[in-house]
Amino acid sequence: MSSARGLSEGNIAMANNQQADISDMLSWDISLAPDIDIYEVDEEFIVYQATTKKYYKIGKFSKVILDKIHESSIIRIEEIIIFACSQQQIISSETKQLVIRFLLHMLTCQVIIRDNMLDPSNKANEHINLKSIKQIRPKPFLKLIQLRSFPQILLIFSKLIPNLSYNMWKILFIAIPMFSLCIAIITMLRYSSSFTISNIWYWLIPLMFVQIMIHEIFHAVCSLRLGGKIRSIGFGLLYYIIPVGYIDLTDNYLLGRKKRAVIALAGPMLDSLAILLTVSCIWLIPSISDILHTFLMLQFSIFIFNCNLLLPSDGLKFVENWFNVVHLRKHSFEILKHSVLRQPPPVYLSRFSLKKRRLYIMYSITATLYILFFITFVLFSYWRVFVV
């Protein structure tokens, strides 16, 4: 089973380090949580937990198990295991372990609950919940500005976007960025001697902030146009030092993969249009060309950053949705961690082939090395601009 956005590290600990006695677990009475909805999107199943506002992607057989729990109202884990084995037409210790790990996983996600889960005297459940909370690790991101309500003008702008076919969107989202990058490279090579940042950074910082926020707003507008929802939008520091904008589009898991791919490319599309605007101004307004030359270089860097597959970027989100690879980055680091610690993988990664695990490990190692290099480069740039 693969999880969607927001799945905590506590699920891994629950699946692999559960201390409860198996025989005791078999007698647990469980039921489906009352605030659960299951959707079918692109022939895949997504579970939504309304209380935690999180989504979890599950396989077809996992859906069968949850349907059985829902039909039974209250059912013992032992009966679920017997049912699962009968569906698979095989009884094995591996099947039992996978079912138990899946159910424990769903318990920590609050997708299913024990019959006595709300009883404060139940020490076993208290241990499970505390263990899950302790395993949660902070994300390497510091939110500085966050907006949860949006002006009606965003919805108005979204209606201005033409209703084009998917193939037409695909052509535009490839042709325009490629054209703008070519123009930008030609311009930067021609005016390479003009690129400087030491004396005009006080102009560039507000310009960069404006472009970053417009970038995120364009994601929001495209999401609204395609029927998506927005939870929040804002500005923060990735890895606590890299200024980036962000937008929470968690609810877009209910859209199709193609729509999510288009939304992911909306930001780089805006960046490419901004590059064309800057290049035009360089030619039309020579009096401020020094600022614009340097700003063009920064815009080019922002575009490359947003398409970098080694970072949690728009380009990575596009690849994940286009090729239906769920949480490539997150799962890669999970597999690397469990390989280094010699621990069994969580249930939703246990079916990965050896070749696939090796590819994920290679990706996570490469991404880690790149992040270390990139953070060093950013710190050096700060030192050069603000200290030297």
What does this structure look like?
This protein has two domains: 2-134, Alpha-Beta Complex (Outer Surface Protein A, domain 3), CATH 3.90.930; 141-325, no CATH class. It is 58% helix and 13% strand. It is built from 14 helices and ten strands. The strands form three sheets. Strands 1-5-4-3 form a four-stranded antiparallel β-sheet. A three-stranded antiparallel β-sheet has the order 6-2-7. It has a three-stranded antiparallel β-sheet with strand order 8-9-10. The chain is elongated. It is a multi-pass membrane protein. The chain crosses the membrane at residues 167-188, 200-218, 230-249, 261-285, 291-311, 360-383.
Quick take:
The protein has about 400 residues and is α+β, with helices and mostly antiparallel strands. The chain contains 14 helices and 10 strands.
**String of helices and strands:** EHHEEEEHEHHEHEHHHEEHHHHH
Portion of residues in beta strands equals 5-15%
Helix segment tally? 14
Kindly report how far apart the N and C termini lie: 52 Å
Mean pLDDT, nearest integer?
A: 80
SS-derived structural category: alpha+beta
Count of β-strands: 10
Give start-end ranges of low-pLDDT stretches.
1-20, 118-138
Major sheet: arrangement of strands: 1-5-4-3
- Morphology call: elongated
> Radius of gyration, rounded?
24 Å
**Biggest pleated-sheet summary:** 4 strands, antiparallel
